[in-house]
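Example 9 (inverse folding). The structure is encoded as follows.
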């Protein structure tokens, strides 16, 4: 981690500003606006999603294992957040919450970076109640074979400059393999992002 992690956290919001304004922020708003009840978010980062949660969210647990990110998240909570929010240092692969304890789980631009996406999704499946929803917004491996090959070639570079982010993961297949049923799915792209990280999936899945 070290200096690289500190710099990434310090510049994260600024790096996303153009992408958010070009449509990603609106996608977050539509996805998260109907979350309700007890919600757990993995990879809470600097708290980009905070403003998109409606009052129907009664409790929010934001998991962020990177101290540099968590520090900025907690600062945003101190400044303006009034709902019941708890910041947890848990990694997505090892969540210290009871089984069947959340109504909604949220993953936005996280499953590209976790060290073990299958284990992370298994943890989300475990902590969601039966019928609970997973809301996801993730950049993924391209359907276009040519672009997918470029993602494979450039993945080492992306991991180096984006703190371990993988641009070529088939995250949709991983969600299905974890025992979730996809109930809504939108494919798109992150406009203004480099082409090899643009392919995007946004949707909802139900814990079976």
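The amino acid assigned to each position is listed next.
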């Amino acid at each position: 981690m070290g200096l690289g992690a500190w710099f990434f956290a310090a510049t994260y919001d600024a790096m996303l500003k153009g992408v958010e304004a070009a449509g990603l922020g609106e996608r977050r708003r539509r996805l998260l606006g109907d979350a309700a009840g007890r919600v757990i978010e993995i990879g809470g980062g600097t708290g980009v999603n905070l403003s998109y949660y409606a009052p129907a969210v009664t409790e929010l647990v934001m998991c962020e294992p990177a101290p540099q990110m968590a520090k900025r998240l907690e600062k945003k909570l101190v400044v303006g957040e009034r709902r019941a929010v708890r910041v947890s240092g848990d990694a997505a692969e090892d969540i210290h919450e009871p089984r069947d304890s959340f109504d909604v789980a949220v993953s936005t631009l996280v499953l590209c970076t976790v060290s073990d996406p299958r284990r992370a999704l298994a943890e989300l499946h475990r902590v969601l109640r039966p019928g609970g929803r997973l809301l996801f917004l993730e950049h993924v491996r391209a359907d276009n074979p040519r672009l997918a090959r470029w993602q494979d070639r450039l993945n080492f570079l992306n991991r180096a400059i984006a703190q371990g982010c993988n641009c070529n993961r088939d995250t949709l297949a991983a969600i299905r393999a974890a025992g979730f049923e996809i109930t809504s799915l939108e494919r798109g792209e992150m406009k203004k992002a480099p082409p090899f990280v643009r392919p995007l999936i946004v949707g909802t899945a139900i814990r079976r």
